[in-house]
TrEMBL record, chain A:
Bilayer-spanning residue ranges: 115-139, 151-175, 195-215, 257-277, 306-328
The ABC transmembrane type-1 domain, residue ranges: 112-321
Species for this entry: Celeribacter persicus
Keyword Heme found: no
Keyword entries, A-Z: Cell membrane, Membrane, Transmembrane, Transmembrane helix, Transport
Protein name per its UniProtKB record: Peptide/nickel transport system permease protein
Taxonomic lineage: Bacteria, Pseudomonadati, Pseudomonadota, Alphaproteobacteria, Rhodobacterales
Pfam families linked to this entry: BPD_transp_1, BPD_transp_1_N
From TrEMBL, chain B:
Keywords, sorted A to Z: ATP-binding, Cell membrane, Membrane, Nucleotide-binding, Transport
Entry coiled-coil feature ranges: none
InterPro entries with a match to the protein in the record: AAA+_ATPase, ABC_Ni/Peptide_Import, ABC_transporter-like_ATP-bd, ABC_transporter-like_CS, Oligopep_ABC_C, P-loop_NTPase
Entry GO MF terms: ATP binding; ATP hydrolysis activity
Name of the protein described by the UniProt record: Peptide/nickel transport system ATP-binding protein/oligopeptide transport system ATP-binding protein
Cellular component GO terms held in the UniProt record: plasma membrane
Automatic annotation (TrEMBL), chain C:
Entry protein name: Oligopeptide transport system ATP-binding protein
Compartments, record wording: Cell inner membrane
Phylogenetic classification of the source organism: Bacteria, Pseudomonadati, Pseudomonadota, Alphaproteobacteria, Rhodobacterales
All copies of domain ABC transporter, residue ranges: 23-262
Keyword DNA repair: no
InterPro entries assigned to the protein according to its UniProt record, in alphabetical order: AAA+_ATPase, ABC_transp_ATP-bind, ABC_transporter-like_ATP-bd, ABC_transporter-like_CS, Oligopep_ABC_C, P-loop_NTPase
Record keywords: ATP-binding, Nucleotide-binding, Transport
UniProtKB/TrEMBL annotation, chain D:
Protein name: Peptide/nickel transport system permease protein
Protein family per UniProt: Belongs to the binding-protein-dependent transport system permease family.
Keywords carried by this UniProt record: Cell membrane, Membrane, Transmembrane, Transmembrane helix, Transport
Localization, UniProt: Cell membrane
Length: 335, 352, 332, 305, 544
């Protein structure tokens, strides 16, 4: 297993380098200009000078190598300095966003909390809801509960969040006034009432995302449970006199979770990628919103760095999913 | 051994019907038999004849729906298993009746260690502590002949060979010293050399623990070596019942006779050509109104097609559900003999 | 089966066949060892005869069968079928050899594509190798179904609609479609019910008689092998330990493993059964990736000698047509 | 299924077209039939509807602006006075054609990659890394690049609408195949070890035909699931594309676009959101049930029951 | 009293990415920055200049501007303090100029300091700005929200290439305005509190303020007008009926103001045919159809501007026939005929010019079809306009294909993209433009010949129609030399009329800004000439 992990990690390096190159070239090729949001009243020469100040005058390969250096050498040094108070990164150029002229990584760090709170929590909820729903749907296959589950998850898939989100706002914020329509990212939880407020402002975005994710996970859970409920070892467990609860929730569930856990693990990178549309609708302004504004603003360093981090997570969680599979299922042995 | 003692298990008129989308399947039809303490009852019959369903029905292991189990009663030590609540059944399963399933490859849960799976019934039924259960599990593994038991407790099923897994299954079934062990084709998936080991083990254990065993198989060779009495099933019914030697010597049902002929042997005479039973087994769409073997039976006559034969006494402890009297070499007289569902058959020489 | 179908012409000649599956491990997936599934076996099969191949599960019977048909790329050795050496022919070139050699598989359910109708399954080899019109093809398929005793009306059915015996007939019809000379039957009856086993075995015998087929009959059911085979090879851990004619082998097994194997077969006769002397083997089969030093069987052999743990015995002909690989009979 | 059912009635001799069996089985699936009827209804409505309901979907009638449902405009009129019924019909044509073709393209692509990766071990690592790459690529810039590079050439070759149609279908297809590829690969890995694949090889069937004949038909079920999800995805993505100006011209109605345009007026004119929303959801639901039914019907093991 | 009114909540649906107006010229950054940084003088809501940090606005009359128009003297108010307590001095003013013009910094407002040769420090409170050429309108440097004063002490190390890496400074500049930045989350939210050293001890009334960003205009409007979560929402470009409906909820009101922004259609004088390769859309090939003036005129005549205003902007739009609609002294009335739609007239005009109706309803002349590609940026109102205009043009026999392009591409200067508005690879395109402050000189110079984007200039330049006449160029040159306001107005009007009567530009709507303020927010005075938040110091909470 260790060998396997090391081998996969080593293999990941060229893969990721290649991915980063492709992303870089893609962004370079993409139309769009970081100066697009500058008013038309600013003359073109000035814009040209601004562009040069961003380093866009350099040839592509220099910019790419520069980015690689900054991402793999400078940024880790900065993080190290930050942790241990050293000063290795002194005077070195970090990756700077075109839009805000601030280091990309510090923006990422700033956005992390709300992304994790909203997108991450909804993912956790989705999993927590989807698993029991999947279990019940499978255990009572073709019952009304199961049928309803199918229907709701199909609806969950097919209605875009830009629509369901707005609908929720209109109902719960405008008409009923229960929840705020705009997420306050500066809010800090200090006491009970601020906690209640935090819950309120999270309610709608978390709900929308939970519905969407839960729909998928519950489908997988159901299928996997159905596969396992008919296995011979279930009968063995019953023959041992185990109660139904133990049989379903211990024996069957543990086996059914193997594929589902990998599905869940593979979905984790998307948390960090943010839920772009939902974040926008509720103004959560997490990583997803940042990515989309960066794309619209042609903020190449930001997009490059974010998508690369995302790629790292994808590769990493693919690996984690595979390893988890091996750990959860003792039959699978890598090497 | 134990002749005349009160039976530990007495099954009367057991029926199991599967309600499926395309109609019902009458898998078990009025099966009655009894099991005495310490004896080994062999059950043979073609694939699909209802052997497994019968045994699983009696202790409520058949999923319902689609199955519906009914009957006059399954008496186990004073409890009627058919009327028992789920909780009562759970107290009996694993504790007083052990079950070994056909396929050792899939009957163990792949994600739990073997030790855990053996300890599970111990902790539940015998309320043992973890340490006690572990000690007992180790004993059990040693009992079924797995070397280095202590270490192997923490192995997973896939780390065992097929024969060892089947031994683990047996260890689980034996964990709580059951009164009855039901073994559903426990050696079918195994090699002959391993099968021989397990049969040997069974012999020793029965001598040591003195429990009653129901042994399902379709291998007549195994039956010959191990059973005291034999039930032959066909089409969801018991078509013949006899002490083992009696059965081999005087098979009184055409199916049994055909079955005995089809099996080649490594030691006896080598037949130039194997006997076959022509035709197909019946589809059990409804309760049988005729002899289910009639379509394939060389002795069949008109009555066979209009009436389902009851089990006629044909000898001491020997009965067969056939209208043809092989002793006489002619169809039976119209008197229908012993009613189906007789509680008790006497006799039963044993081969051990 | 009639003895006169036998001839002295060797149809299949296997020499020193080795099939090792590599095991890779480590960070760089280096090859660290191999599963010696088949480790140097040699035998001949005469035209029109049936060679039985028996042995414990996992001893390499299936691998041997598949390797002979070149479903694997073999590690070493030569295979000559009908005079053509195919041991190292590349796969695409083998295609035109395929009609001569066919296979019947162990599990009739698993070896039939559940989504193809019977006609399509039996017709597949014809699609691949014969140029027939639609009508000709259909006629051929139907006649094959007749040959294996399947009702013509079943042509449009799907495998799951058949009983195990019937499914195995489909598999046999598929193997027969191209008029092969040599068929490897890889445990064709293991998955079947006893009463159906007999049907299939009879069918195989009838077909052998009718078409002059040659079989390699792999099985671990010794009683069936005794019934069908002319000669029998016993395998243990990738090696052939004994090879003899049926009568010799069953009457007078020489190798301790053969003896144990035969004694373990249960007897469907309580009186005989009581008299059988069982040789109970202890322990499990060693792993083929790490076979013991010396004789493969030395770890379980009841008659093990010191030499067995040191030196690998060679195959020897102790009587005409009776080969044994055991130090007990080593004469040199 | 056990041996027991074998001696049921013997079927008529004439070799009946297999598709009739499929259809017979399909008919027994209630959800699938309902889905099919609805889907056929929608398709007929959007393709034949414009012949009956002759209002031009882009015709602006200022007097009808923001009108509610009336005889002249059964679904009402939008903020420019265009007839919503006509727009729904025209939009449906685009959405359904785009949804179907893009879904098919993505399925074909995903299945192709998945089969290659699963069946040929040598290609596996490379193709799966490619899949990772596509998963990681930022979609929007990718779309912009594709559209920038290919819009004009395609337009020239196929004309305005066909060109953009091809482009959109291509774009959606190329960015949504990864999921299918992974699922298919997993299944192929398992399937290729099946004995019937070995049997086919022993006959001498070349790999290409082994894949076509034995592997593909047996991965129908995951493909069907991907198909239903794919169609929803394609309809929604198309709307996002045209909203970004990357798709059809702005006056060209599609369901997704109608939904998007109307979402700001959800309070004032809720019906304008409901129509396209309902149309998309019901179509997806219908396709889902059809997929379910088809999967069952194509599986002879279930068909026999 | 300062800080007595608690908290004010402002929403900018386009979130500010920095607080330093010299690093981003975007409206959102400039406006939010104006809460902290202040210039010497600003424009008020009427477009008049009012002194902020300066004692008074220097003019020729009061001697602040030299007669030769070459230098301007500014005097700072006395006793001004930065929010950190340091005094504001002429050093800071001079530094601001140095900062923006330092080499390699890419200052986005450097054009404001064009022709400044020196900023001379006379004493602590007096500076003289020297120009290299006579400046008839010398209010570029240090005036308006694009050119506020920054603190030398804070930014001293941030000039030139270091400009970008001074993140802390850029995110929390020390200023003289009513608020101080407490926390800046880029593209998300700015938290501010009252400046303790603000010059008016009673202001600002609010103790704290947040500016939230993100989402879209509809959500922003909703949060002020419908749920009342926010006090002020900026730039609500939404359909008029949606806005009206929101306003009717009674939580807030819409406020609007008109600057110089005109939504217009640019007519391409050059041929955008892709077959022309790199001569595409350059003066080398005149446009096959649109070179014909009667076609351009017919296109303009077919448009009902009144209706466009009603559908797209409501109270935030006015019909206009000029590309230079304001200030009042520059507004021409010579072209008002366009106010009324004249479809029949347009048809007749085309007919007369030989464009005959083909069988497919499209006019033709000499085998050329009257068929146009009409592009604009992606934006709901623009797409509605496209659809409507298409219909009108269809009526007069013009075939129209529509295309919308994402604004980051359309307005970006990426020379690699074919879809920028400068490249103009289409026949007509629609967008809005305005000019800074109140002086139109630079704006009107946009349509000089040399301003035409072409490959040699990397497609930069503001003359999208590629309009090119000697007369026009001469007028531009003349205006650069004229100091007298009356004469300047005359020249500007002439130029405007020339463009209009050549139909090089088809003006559609004179657009105002619309924002929404909560009913409880007092003191809001929306300003189209400067930052909308220009008087945030005067805002207060209305108590019920
Ligand atoms: N869940 C079920 N639904 C419908 N029919 C069933 C079900 N389970 C079993 N049957 C049917 O019940 C009959 C008896 O099955 P059973 O498994 O008892 O046979 P068996 O004698 O144990 O055969 P084998 O030797 O193959 O194990 C068969 O015809 C089978 O098809
Ligand atoms: N593709 C493979 N890769 C690695 N090892 C293999 C492979 N195929 C078979 N083996 C190993 O080779 C050995 C022989 O296998 P084989 O299937 O030939 O046995 P067998 O005699 O046919 O057994 P059975 O009676 O169970 O069918 C086994 O240990 C098996 O694990
Ligand atoms: Mg069974
Ligand atoms: Mg095998
Ligand atoms: Ni006894």
């Amino acid at each position: 297993m260790l060998h396997y992990t090391i081998r996969r990690l080593l293999l990941a390096i060229p893969t990721l380098l290649f991915i980063s190159l492709v992303i870089f070239l893609l962004l370079d090729l993409a139309p769009g200009d970081p100066m697009a949001s500058i008013p038309l009243t600013v003359p073109p020469e000035v814009k040209e000078r601004m562009r040069e100040a961003l380093g866009l005058g350099e040839p592509v390969h220099i910019r790419f190598l520069n980015w690689l250096y900054q991402f793999f050498i400078v940024e880790p040094q900065v993080a190290f300095d930050h942790l241990f108070g050293t000063d290795f990164s002194e005077g070195k150029q970090r990756i700077i966003s075109f839009q805000s002229r601030s280091p990309v990584m510090s923006v990422v760090a700033e956005r992390m909390p709300q992304t994790l709170w909203v997108v991450g929590l909804s993912y956790v909820f989705a999993t927590l809801i989807a698993v029991p729903i999947g279990i019940i749907s499978a255990y009572r296959q073709y019952s009304w509960f199961d049928q309803l589950g199918t229907f709701v998850s199909m609806i969950g898939f097919s209605i875009p969040t830009f629509f369901s989100g707005v609908l929720l706002i209109v109902i719960f914020s405008v008409t009923l006034g229960w929840f705020p329509s705009i997420y306050d990212t500066t809010h800090e939880v200090t006491d009970w009432s601020s906690f209640v407020f935090q819950m309120k402002q999270m309610a709608m975005p978390v709900f929308v995302l939970t519905l969407y994710n839960a729909a998928q996970v519950s489908r997988f859970m159901r299928a996997s449970m159905l596969d396992n409920l008919n296995q011979d070892y279930v009968r063995t467990a019953r023959a041992k006199g185990m109660s139904e609860k133990v049989v379903v929730l211990l024996h069957v569930l543990r086996n059914s979770m193997i594929p589902v856990v990998t599905v869940i693990a593979l979905g984790v990178p998307s948390i960090f990628g943010g839920a772009i549309i939902t974040e926008q609708v509720f103004q959560v302004n997490g990583l997803g919103q940042m990515l989309i504004t960066a794309i619209y603003a042609s903020d190449a360093p930001m997009v490059q760095t974010l998508t690369f981090i995302f790629a790292v997570l994808i590769v990493l969680f693919n690996l984690i999913a595979d390893i988890l599979y091996g750990i959860l299922d003792p039959r699978i042995r890598y090497d | 051994m134990a002749d005349g003692a009160a039976p530990v298990l007495n099954v009367r008129d057991l029926k199991t019907v599967f309600k499926t989308r395309s109609g019902s399947v009458h898998a078990v039809n009025s099966v009655s038999f009894s099991l005495k303490p310490g004896e080994l009852l062999g059950v043979v019959g073609e694939s699909g004849s209802g052997k497994s369903v019968t045994m699983m029905s009696l202790i409520g292991l058949i999923p319902s729906p689609p199955a519906q189990v009914s009957g006059a009663g399954v008496d186990f030590g004073g409890t009627d298993l058919l009327k028992a609540s789920d909780d009562e059944l759970r107290k009996i399963r694993g504790a007083r009746i052990g079950f070994v399933f056909q396929d050792p490859m899939t009957s163990l849960n792949p994600v739990f260690t073997v030790g855990y799976q053996i300890m599970e019934p111990l902790r539940k039924h015998m309320k043992m502590s973890r340490a006690q259960a572990r000690g007992r599990a180790k004993e059990l593994l040693e009992l079924v002949g797995i070397p280095d038991a202590e270490r192997r407790l923490s192995d997973f099923p896939h780390q065992f060979s097929g024969g060892m897994r089947q031994r683990v299954m047996i260890a689980i079934a034996l964990a709580c010293d059951p009164e009855v062990l039901i073994a559903d084709e426990p050696t079918t998936a195994l090699d002959v050399t391993i099968q021989a080991q397990i049969l040997e083990l069974m012999h020793e254990l029965r001598a040591k623990l003195g429990m009653a065993v129901i042994w399902i198989t379709h291998d007549l060779g195994v039956i010959a070596g191990i059973a005291d009495r034999v039930l032959v099933m066909y089409g969801g019914q018991i078509v013949e019942h006899a002490p083992v030697r009696e059965l081999f010597k005087h098979p009184r049902h055409p199916y049994t006779r055909a079955l005995l002929k089809t099996v080649p042997s490594v030691r006896g005479e080598r037949a130039e050509r194997l006997e076959v039973i022509e035709g197909q087994p019946p589809i059990l769409r409804a309760e049988p109104s005729s002899c289910s073997f009639a379509a394939r039976c060389p002795f069949a006559f008109a009555r066979c097609l209009s009436e389902n034969p009851a089990r006629f006494d044909v000898g001491p402890g020997h009965d067969a559900a056939c209208f043809y009297d092989f002793e006489a070499g002619a169809p039976r007289a119209t008197v229908s003999a012993a009613a189906v569902g007789r509680p008790e058959f006497e006799g039963g020489a044993h081969a051990g | 089966m009639l003895d006169d179908t036998k001839s002295n012409k060797v149809l299949v000649e296997v020499r020193d066949l080795k099939m090792h599956f590599p095991i890779h491990a480590g960070v760089l997936r280096k090859r660290v060892g191999e599963v010696k599934a088949v480790d140097g076996i040699s035998f001949d099969i005469y035209e029109g005869e049936t060679l039985g191949l028996v042995g414990e599960s996992g001893c390499g019977k299936s691998t041997a069968g598949r390797a002979i048909l070149r479903l694997y790329d073999i590690t070493e050795g030569t295979i000559r079928i009908d005079g053509v050496e195919i041991g190292h022919t590349p796969q695409p070139d083998l295609r035109k050899m395929r009609p001569t050699m066919q296979m019947v598989f162990q599990d009739p359910q698993a070896s039939l594509n559940p989504r193809m109708s019977v006609a399509a399954i039996i017709g597949e080899p014809l699609d691949e190798h014969a140029r027939l019109s639609k009508a000709e093809k259909r006629e051929k398929v139907l006649s094959l179904m007749d040959a294996v005793g399947l009702n013509r009306d079943f042509a449009n059915r799907y495998p799951h609609e058949f009983s195990g015996g019937q499914r195995q007939r489909i598999g046999i019809a598929r193997a027969l479609a191209l008029n092969p000379k040599f068929i490897v039957c890889d445990e064709p009856i293991a998955a079947l019910d006893v009463s159906i086993q007999a049907q299939v075995v009879n069918l195989l015998e009838d077909l052998q008689e009718e078409f002059g087929l040659t079989y390699l009959f792999i099985s671990h059911d010794l009683s069936m092998v005794r019934h069908i085979a002319d000669r029998v090879a016993v395998m243990y851990l990738g090696r052939v330990v004994e090879l003899a004619s049926r009568e010799t082998l069953f009457a007078d097994p020489k190798h301790p493993y053969t003896q144990a194997l035969l004694s373990a077969v249960p007897e469907p006769d309580p009186w005989l059964e009581e008299k059988v002397e069982r040789i109970l083997l202890q322990g499990d089969v060693p792993s083929p990736s790490n076979p013991p030093k010396g004789c493969n069987f030395c770890t379980r052999c009841p008659q093990v000698m010191d030499i067995c743990r040191e030196i690998d015995p060679l195959g020897q002909e102790i009587a005409p047509g009776h080969q044994v690989t055991c130090h007990l009979y080593q004469t040199t | 299924m056990s041996d027991a059912t074998v001696t049921t009635t013997v079927k008529p001799k004439a070799p009946r077209n297999q598709w009739w069996d499929v259809w017979d089985q399909f008919k027994t699936h209630k959800g699938a039939m309902a889905g099919l009827i609805f889907f056929v209804f929608i398709v007929l409505a959007v393709y034949l509807g414009p012949f009956l309901w002759k209002i031009d979907p882009t015709y602006i009638d200022f007097r009808a602006r923001n009108q509610g449902p009336s005889l002249a405009h059964p679904f009402g009129a939008d903020q420019l006075g265009r007839d919503i019924l006509a727009r729904m019909l025209a939009g449906g044509q685009v959405s359904i054609s785009v949804g179907l073709t893009a879904m098919i393209l993505s399925l074909v692509l995903g299945t192709f990659v998945g089969v290659l990766a699963g069946y040929w071990k040598r290609l596996d690592g490379m193709l799966m890394r490619l899949t990772d790459l596509f998963l990681a690529l930022p979609l929007l810039p990718l779309l912009m690049v594709i559209i920038m590079l290919f819009r004009d050439p395609l337009r020239k070759m196929f004309g305005l609408e066909a060109g953009i149609f091809i482009l959109i279908v291509f774009v959606i297809g190329i960015t949504s195949w990864m999921q299918t590829a992974r699922i298919v690969r997993g299944d192929v890995l398992a399937l290729k070890e099946r004995e019937y694949v070995l049997a086919a090889r022993s006959i001498g069937t070349p790999s290409r035909r082994v894949v076509l004949r034995h592997i593909l038909p047996n991965i129908m079920s995951p493909i069907m699931v991907s198909a239903t999800l794919g169609i929803a995805n394609a309809i929604i993505t198309e709307s996002a594309l045209s909203f970004l100006g990357l798709g059809f011209p702005p006056d060209y109605p599609t369901w997704g676009r109608l939904l998007f345009d109307a979402k700001d007026m959800i309070q004032q004119y809720p019906e304008r959101v409901i129509w396209p929303g309902l149309a998309i959801s019901l179509t997806v639901l219908a396709v889902n049930y059809i997929g379910d039914g088809l999967r069952d019907a194509l599986d002879p093991r279930i068909r026999g029951r | 009293e300062r800080g007595s009114d608690g908290h004010v909540n402002i929403i900018y649906w386009q979130a500010p990415s920095t607080m330093n107006p010299y690093l981003s010229g975007g409206t959102k950054e400039l406006e939010v920055g104006s809460l902290v940084l202040e210039p010497l003088a600003r424009y008020d809501a009427e477009g008049n200049m009012v002194p902020f940090l300066a004692e008074s606005v220097p003019t020729v009359e009061n001697g602040g501007v030299s007669e030769d128009l070459m230098n301007v003297t500014w005097k700072l108010k006395e006793g001004l303090l930065w929010s950190d307590g340091k005094p504001l001095t002429s050093e800071d003013v001079r530094f601001t100029w140095e900062y923006c013009t330092s080499e390699g910094g890419g200052c986005s407002q450097s054009e404001k300091y064009n022709d400044v040769t020196d900023v001379e420090i006379v004493d602590d409170l007096t500076v003289i700005v020297h120009f290299g050429v006579p400046k008839p309108f010398p209010y570029g440097p240090f005036v308006g929200n694009q050119a506020p004063i920054i603190q030398k002490a804070q930014f001293a190390d941030c000039t030139g290439e270091a400009m970008a890496s001074c993140t802390d400074q850029n995110f929390a500049p020390i200023g003289t305005g009513p608020f101080v930045v407490d926390e800046f989350k880029t593209n998300d939210v700015v938290s501010m509190s009252a400046n303790p050293n603000y010059r008016d001890p009673a202001k600002p009334a609010f103790a704290t303020a947040t500016v939230k960003g993100g989402g879209d205009a509809a959500a922003a409007g909703r949060s002020v007008l419908e749920t009342g979560e926010f006090d002020y929402a900026w730039n609500l470009q939404l359909a008029p009926d949606v806005l009206a409906d929101m306003e009717s909820k009674g939580k807030g009101k819409l406020v609007s103001a008109f600057g110089t922004l005109v939504e217009r259609i640019m007519v391409n004088y050059t041929d955008p045919d892709p077959a022309l390769g790199d001569k595409r859309a350059t003066a080398a090939h005149p446009h096959p159809i649109l070179s014909d003036k009667s076609v351009r005129q017919a296109l303009s005549m077919a448009i009902d501007r009144e209706l466009l205003v009603e559908i797209g902007y409501g109270a935030a739009g006015k019909v206009t026939c000029n590309v230079l609609p304001a200030p009042a002294i520059y507004a021409s009335t010579a072209n008002d005929a366009c106010m009324v739609q004249d479809i029949e007239g347009a048809k007749a005009l085309l007919e007369a010019d030989g464009w005959v109706m083909g069988s497919d309803g499209i006019r033709e002349k000499d085998g050329k079809k009257l068929s146009l590609l009409f592009q604009t940026s992606t934006n709901a109102v623009r797409q509605d306009f496209q659809a409507i205009i298409k219909q009108w043009w269809n009526e007069i026999g013009v075939e129209v294909e529509l295309r919308n392009i994402d604004s980051s591409v359309f307005f970006g200067g990426d020379a690699g993209s074919p879809d920028t508005f400068q490249k103009f690879f289409a026949d007509v395109e629609m967008y809005a433009n305005n000019f800074d402050g109140t002086d139109p000189e630079a704006y009107m110079a946009n349509w000089e010949c040399k301003q035409a984007p072409r490959p040699e200039t990397q497609w930069q330049g503001n003359n999208m129609p590629r309009y090119c006449t000697e007369e026009y160029d001469a007028l531009v040159a003349e205006m650069a030399k004229t100091g007298d306001l009356e004469k300047r107005a005359e020249l500007a009007k002439t130029m405007n009329d020339m463009l209009m009567q050549d139909y090089a530009i088809i003006p559609l709507v004179y657009r105002g800004r619309v924002s929404a303020a909560s009913n409880t927010l007092g003191g809001v005075e929306i300003n189209a000439w400067d930052s909308e938040l220009w008087n945030a110091a005067d805002w207060y909470r209305i108590k019920e």
